[in-house]
Design a protein that fits this description.
Elements lengths: L1 H16 L10 E15 L12 E16 L2 E16 L15 E16 L6 E11 L5 E3 L3 E5 L18 E14 L2 E14 L3 H4 L8 E2 L10 E2 L2 E16 L6 E12 L8 E11 L4 E11 L5 E4 L7 E5 L3 E13 L1
Antiparallel strand pairs: 1-2, 1-18, 2-3, 3-4, 4-5, 5-8, 6-7, 8-9, 9-12, 10-11, 12-13, 13-14, 14-15, 15-18, 16-17
Length: 337
């Protein structure tokens, strides 16, 4: 809960220190993109005792936006992909093995958001809106808990087992119709009383695990595989989404953005609200280079996550319903056009 408090404090500070209302946004298209890289490398040959081990880390983040405004029509689109891998050590994983130390996945999250709005009347702050979101990952993830701990980007042991996750297994998509309130260019408050949500796990071998929020039934075997499962869990509920973006320093040197999504499923446990909270803080070092901080909080009542316990092997103590926190710092090259 202390992480959520920090996120709330950060967003509150943004509101307090935000600039005056921005100028009217001109008609037409506006778009931009940023590419951030995360590189860490360390090589040791014949290292001293206790001096550490080799490390190679690669990753980064790509974010882009495309916005259209013409008269009473507005259409906002955003894309974010965060990805990272690392390899610690060198050589083979153990005596009697020919498998090299593999790359472990540190993050893989792909997001798309699109919202179309039509102003109810001239100079109104209310819009009829259609909102769509998509969340998945682009690369597969493998685990070998009985052989070698970690999340890996390939079946490096060539066991032939199925991945734990991959693109569209799982994925979460929402489509909602409602009203969008825009009192200023920086703030948007969207509410939909009729919102559909789909948890998608297209791979049968992954869906049968029952860990990604799709519905399963029957008794799991010793490997945790269920005999009956659904590839798509369709939900109907209500969605509220608050978006905020503002400059905290003159000349847009420091900008803050936050998107908070709250969803309740009418059909199952409506009292348990799903939370998807994305936050970004960007500091402009030069005209195009930025230092970016991403902090996301996620909770879905249908999804079991790995429970962090620093006293447990590999820092994980089983699966359960918990708030998931993700943080990443990257140096980004960004352009608006």
């Amino acid at each position: 809960m202390r992480y959520l408090f920090l996120l709330l404090l950060l967003s509150t500070s943004a509101v307090v220190f935000a600039q005056e209302e921005e100028e009217e946004i001109p008609d037409g298209w506006r778009s931009g993109a940023g590419l951030g890289l995360d590189l860490a490398q360390l090589l040791q040959i014949n290292p001293k005792q206790g001096a550490g081990q080799n490390r190679l880390g690669l990753g980064g983040a790509f974010n882009g936006f495309a916005s259209y405004k013409m008269g009473r029509k507005v259409w906002d689109n955003t894309l974010l992909w965060q990805f990272g891998v690392q390899r610690l050590g060198s050589g083979i994983i153990g005596q009697g093995s020919s498998s090299k130390i593999p790359f472990q996945k540190t993050i893989d999250e792909f997001r798309l958001n699109s919202k179309y709005g039509y102003q109810i009347k001239e100079d109104s702050e209310l819009y009829y809106s259609v909102n769509a979101t998509f969340l998945s990952q682009l690369t597969p993830t493998y685990q070998f808990p009985d052989l070698y701990s970690g999340n890996f980007v390939s079946d490096f042991l060539e066991t032939g087992r199925s991945p734990l996750s991959k693109f569209l297994s799982p994925a979460t998509a929402t489509l909602s119709v409602g009203v969008d309130y825009k009192p200023t260019p920086e703030l948007s408050i969207f509410f939909s009383p009729v919102a559909s949500k789909f948890i998608i796990v297209l791979s049968d071998s992954i869906a049968s695990r029952g860990v990604h929020g799709n519905q399963v039934s029957g008794e799991a075997n010793s490997a945790g595989i269920y005999p009956e499962f659904q590839n798509v869990d369709a939900q109907l509920g209500a969605l509220a989404q608050i978006q905020y973006k503002a400059a905290l320093l003159p000349d847009d040197r420091l900008t803050f953005s936050s998107t908070l999504g709250l969803y309740t499923n009418y059909l199952r446990n409506p009292q348990n609200v799903d939370v998807d909270w994305q936050n970004g803080l960007a500091f402009a070092i030069t005209e195009n280079f930025q230092l970016n901080l991403f902090v996301n909080a996620f909770y879905d009542d249908d999804i079991r996550v790995q429970i962090t316990d620093y006293d447990a092997p590999n820092g994980v103590r089983g699966l359960g319903r918990r708030v998931s926190i993700t943080e990443q710092i990257v140096l980004t090259y960004a352009r608006t056009f």
